[in-house]
Design goal:
Number of strands: 16
Number of helices: 18
CATH architecture of the largest domain: 2-Layer Sandwich
Radius of gyration: 29 Å
Bound molecules: adenosine monophosphate
CATH class of the largest domain: Alpha Beta
Strand order of the largest sheet: 1-5-6-11-10-9-7-8
Distance between the termini: 57 Å
CATH topology of the largest domain: BirA Bifunctional Protein, domain 2
């Protein structure tokens, strides 16, 4: 049962270790996206409500967290702003607002939280971070290849290796409907049902298709899509459809383009992958990994969406990675905590200021250092604190050290203790840490002498 101190359902508090793991992952993604020449864009967490409403049909409106009018208008109970639920609608607004001031084509990446009033579940949050990259203004398959490969490289750079990219296309799906003589008016609903082949049995999907009015072709279609050699079968089935053949040619072109960059088997033609969002106009893809609900990421070409979202009518292709699901994968856990390089113990209150100065000098030397701030002076407790901070060394300074003009440096990994002249402490630590000590003073000379 949630308590009053839990964050709202579908959101999380990120304590240090998890936060830092995520920041590392963002840095990796940013650097890969940057390597492909995508430039950053940051937009506000909230937008005017009218910018967000009605953009992907009623479905997306249900996901919107609205923000009530404030001040004197609060009593109206109306909303005028809302939290963004993706990074694509804000991109369209930026494209409309800045037009020709933006580079053309405009290759941008955006990493930031989005909010969806969804029902939370495993790997499904109401606040989550998306890492998007999009190219506006290029109809070239090279643009699709670049987005696809940048997204792929980001996953690999994060250490994710066990994943597959399912590739399909809107034309192939349209061709499939045509080849199986499915009437246009129920086409979109048929695709929504076919998208359930991952979750439901083939028989259940056939039954749902029959509910939509399909006859024998329901069984034929589902058998072709679920057969072991489904991609070959679908290639044959698409022959009579011009759209289907054209879609396949585009896919084969894209496959050939990316095949030099991706390992064999990483990307496969997946004729039953639909990708729920109806705005795609060309190739679509999804990254799936064993044990992960839904997808790690997805993308595709969406040539008229930017205009529909209020921007200019430019061809566009883009993709999104969801960090939450990536970090659920085995091997993605946070590594051991390394908060401090140097933990300085306070063995004797009368030398607390000396201990403090050792930490000051260590920081000045570029090391992460902190003095013990707790109340109990017990050495065991202070060493536990140093270990909890992941410190590499614990500096000990008591009467014996003072008398000898030294400090004791304890290596927290080996437990080995080395007396070091107080004046040489930071030089000793910095050289052990492999850092340089340009223009810094040593600890011992400041106040410990
Ligand atoms: P979408 O914008 O729905 O295509 O989602 C793109 C990516 O965002 C997905 O592949 C997921 O990795 C991630 N994602 C989507 N919805 C959620 C959610 N509710 N919680 C966490 N991640 C999500």
């Amino acid at each position: 049962m949630p308590t009053q101190f839990d964050p709202p359902s579908g959101t999380r508090d990120l304590l240090a270790q998890e936060f830092e793991r995520r920041e590392q992952a963002f840095a990796v993604i940013r650097s890969v996206y940057g390597r492909y020449g995508f430039e950053p864009l940051q937009t506000p967490a909230f937008e005017r409500l009218e910018v967000l409403m009605g953009k992907y049909g009623d479905d997306s409106d249900k996901l919107i967290f609205k923000i009530l009018r404030r001040g004197e208008q609060e009593a109206s109970g109306e909303a005028d702003l809302a939290l963004r639920y993706d990074l694509t609608v804000p991109l369209a607004r930026v494209a409309a607002a800045y037009g020709s001031q933006l580079p053309s084509p405009y290759k941008r990446y955006a990493i930031g939280p989005v909010w969806r009033a969804d029902r939370p579940g495993k790997g499904r949050y109401r606040e989550f971070v998306q890492c998007d990259l999009d190219t506006l203004g290029s109809a070239s398959p090279l643009a699709d290849a670049e987005v696809l490969c940048a997204q792929h490289d980001a996953l690999v750079a994060l250490g994710v290796t066990d994943f597959t990219i399912l590739l399909n296309s809107r034309q192939v799906l349209a061709g499939l409907l045509e080849a199986y003589h499915i009437p246009d008016q129920i086409g979109p609903r048929v695709l929504i049902v076919l998208d359930k082949l991952d979750k439901l049995s083939p028989a259940a999907v056939v039954a749902e298709l029959q509910d939509l009015g399909l006859g024998e072709e329901a069984g034929d279609l589902v058998r072709a899509l679920t057969a072991a050699d489904s991609s070959d079968r679908i290639r044959v089935a698409l022959k009579p459809s011009e759209q289907g053949e054209a879609g396949l040619a585009v896919l084969d072109d894209l496959l050939a383009l990316v095949s030099t960059e991706l390992p064999p088997g990483r990307i496969v033609f997946a004729p039953r992958m639909v990708r729920g969002l109806s705005y795609y106009t060309g190739p679509i893809w999804e990254h799936v990994a064993p044990g992960i609900p839904g997808s790690l990421g997805g993308g595709g070409r969406y040539d008229h969406l930017i205009a529909q979202l209020g921007g200019p009518d430019v061809p566009a292709t883009g993709a999104s990675l969801g960090i939450e699901r990536i970090l659920m994968l085995p091997g993605q856990e946070a590594g051991p905590l390394r908060r401090l390089d140097v933990a300085v113990a306070v063995l004797d209150e009368q030398y607390a200021r000396d201990a403090y100065s050792f930490a000051v000098a260590s920081r000045a030397a570029g090391l992460r250092a902190s003095v013990y701030l707790g109340s109990s002076g017990k050495l065991g407790k202070q060493l536990r604190w140093a270990a909890d901070q992941g410190a590499r060394w614990c500096v000990l300074y008591g009467s014996a050290e003072r008398a000898a003009g030294t400090v004791t440096v304890r290596d927290m990994t080996t437990g080995e203790q080395t007396p070091v002249p107080a004046a040489e402490l930071t030089g000793y630590l910095a050289s052990a840490a492999g850092t340089t000590l340009a223009g810094t003073t040593s600890a011992g000379t400041t106040s410990a002498g």
